Amino acid sequence: VIISLTISAILVFFIVPLSILFFIYLSNILLLIYQRNGEVKGDPLSDVWDSARKTLASFWDIYARIWHGYELHGVENLPEGPGILVYYHGAIPIDYLYFLSRLFLWKKRLCLSVADHFVFRLPGLKLLLEVTGVMPGTREECLIALKNGYLVSVSPGGLREALFSDESYQLVWGNRKGFAQVALEAKVVSIVCY
Predict the structure, then answer these.
(1) Average pLDDT for residues 69-74, to the nearest whole number?
(2) What's the total number of domains in the chain?
(3) In Å, how far are 53, 58, 139, 167 from 46, measured between CA atoms?
(4) Cβ(181)–Cβ(146) under 8 Å?
């Protein structure tokens, strides 16, 4: 009984993160196949990639509903133009991926995501990051994206919040207020997502 409980606990503990990682790499492989078969050479943020984005978003949306019972409320309150979305960074921010998928399916909007530099060092994810609009998020890049009409999302707590926050979901932003300065410079609204 103890051995079966231990094995069950280990499987439950590791199966969710490993399945998410598997599906992320599968998504990148599907984008590579799409790129090669369609000989797509355009800018990864262009409309040429919309059918591939829609396919990926549909897949992640189905996964979100079945595996996590994910629901999204308030999308109708997002501005039609540019804006900054501020969100809480959980240990595995999979709910954010679900949000991006549902946003693309419902509103046909691509939200560019600010990520830490280590994300761009992960092997084999370059095309997925480019097509889904993940960027290093310097102030200049964020301003350009906002001026081009995109929604830009940022988690000020980042990895620190993911690692050191607890089950009460306390924000761990420290002195990270750059997103507010960018919003002021670009004259756009900041929307807090929770």
Answers:
(1) 85
(2) 1
(3) 11, 19, 22, 39
(4) no
Q: Which residues contact 44 (CB under 8 A, 6 or more apart)?
A: 127, 130, 131
How is residue 66 written in tokens? Answer: 């079945």
Lookup result for tokens 């900041």: 190
> What domain range is 78 assigned to?
1-192
- Residues with Cβ within 8 Å of 22's Cβ and at least 6 positions away in sequence, in order, are none
How would you label 67-102 residue by residue, b for 16+ Cβ within 10 Å and e otherwise?
A: eeebeeeeeeebeeebbbbbbbbeeebbbbbbbbbb
Query: What is the C-alpha separation between 157 and 176, in angstroms, rounded?
Result: 7
Range of lowest pLDDT (86-95, 136-145, 148-157): 86-95
Catalytic hit among 68, 73, 89, 117:
89
Active site residue 68: no
User: How many angstroms separate the first and last alpha carbons of the chain?
Assistant: 40
Pairwise CA distance, residues 89 & 171, whole Å? 9
pLDDT at 172 over 60: no
